[in-house]
């Protein structure tokens, strides 16, 4: 095997290196704008190149064919666990992305029941009430960073719909613990000291672990319909439950995986609709034609909202890069990536390919309409939710949540940007506007 790899390497194309400073390489450029970084190396070096990020070589496989190669992962060479573990293990151990192969398949199958049609329908009812209550208190007529509003909303959804907790002091403490954990996961100084954000995140995790662990037995026996109950009651084909520790770890991981990504998507939707008032108007008409309260089935009957959401996800992919660890040497288009290498693919490159998307920098939701379906030009052109065995398990949950919030938002408010804006996005770790997207909300004439 090793001999074959060595022979292959002797006949393969070289992998261009992006150069840069010793050890640091392109780290600062990547942090400043992952979008500009990926596009610079793609335009200069093509589909395969190597750079140095945070003191180590990283191989970049870019474009739809590269997405397909890595995400389909024929032969199981690309490990999700080994790539994500380094970033997430201390705070979010045991999550699905931190598992490979048969173990991943088994956990994912068991978890699937928490994301089936019946479960999503139950979450919808709980979510509808939470969204309605929260939006009724949003400030009108004054500039307010939309990112902050929607973060608070998705945290309410996490405590009420995911955990089944009632609003109040306990819910507020849980939200703070979770916020501390997320902040810690991107902390540069990783020392467990109580006054550093990393230490606060570790303490937050310990409290959340205690909270969930104490309640698993009651949730297993309950008739509750929240996500926590569904996980506590999940079983494999032989009737085996998740261990208490697995339930706790999956819950904490799911909250993390859901929170910033959904927040990012909603913020981008509000941004594109503020920049394109004609679309805001069209979507409001679509929403006003739907009955109240919005049923779960109605979510499938908002084609324009669906197209806008997809276009926002294309232009502002919440997850800018998907890392994998190549456990063996692997060939792609004549290049060989050496064994034990960190690899990334990026939606930011495939979402702006000119041979797939017409005028890719233009906001054009109708590119997703059935008669154009530009996303169908390549199975792996549009990958905001990843693909292959690790494709987002919460995709439908996330999409439903975004469409439900759009429904309430568009019926209740009109909005515009508080000031004319440039393209100022921070892409890592999750895409968000650097200034929080100040907007002014006004009540619609029907409210
Ligand atoms: C619009 C919102 C969302 C976006 C854009 C998004 C994006 C992603 C992406 C790109 C991946 C693949 C990562 C990889 O392959 O390395 C992923 C995986 C995952 N997502 Fe989401 N996500 C969203 C919402 C959610 C929600 C609401 C949940 C849970 C309720 C969730 C739970 C997960 C989990 C558990 C995984 C790992 C799946 C596995 O490894 O099998 N996500 N998500």
Features:
16 helices, 3-stranded antiparallel sheet, binds protoporphyrin IX containing FE, Cytochrome p450, 5-stranded mixed sheet, 447 residues, 12 strands, alpha+beta
How many distinct helices?
16
Looking at the structure, what is the overall shape? globular
Sketch the topology as an H/E string, one letter per element. Answer: HHHEEHEHHHEHHHHHHHEEEEHHEEEE
Which small molecules are bound?
Answer: protoporphyrin IX containing FE
Mean pLDDT: 93
What is the alpha-carbon Rg in Å? 22 Å
Classification by helices and strands: alpha+beta
Which sheet architecture does the biggest sheet show? Answer: 5 strands, mixed
- CATH class placement: Mainly Alpha
Give me the CATH architecture, please. Answer: Orthogonal Bundle
Distance between the termini: 69 Å
Produce a short descriptive summary.
49% of the residues lie in helices and 11% in strands. The protein is of the alpha+beta class and 447 residues long.
How would you describe the overall organization of this protein?
It is a single chain. With 447 residues, the chain is α+β, with helices and mostly antiparallel strands. The protein has a single domain (91-323, 348-443), classed as Cytochrome P450 (Cytochrome p450). It contains 16 helices and twelve strands. The chain has helices at residues 2-10, 27-32, 34-45, 64-72, 80-88, 101-111, 117-135, 146-162, 169-185, 197-221, 227-232, 244-275, 277-288, 303-315, 347-350, 395-412; strands spanning 48-53, 56-61, 78-79, 143-145, 322-326, 330-332, 335-337, 341-345, 413-417, 425-426, 432-433, 438-443. The strands form four sheets. Strands 1-2-8-5-3 form a five-stranded mixed sheet. Helix 10 (197-221) packs across helix 12, helix 12 crosses helix 16 (395-412) and helix 13 (277-288) crosses helix 16. The longest helix has 32 residues, at 244-275. It is globular and about 65 Å long. The model is unreliable at 1-8 (pLDDT under 50). The protein binds protoporphyrin IX containing FE (HEM). The site of protoporphyrin IX containing FE has 22 residues, from helix 12 and helix 16.
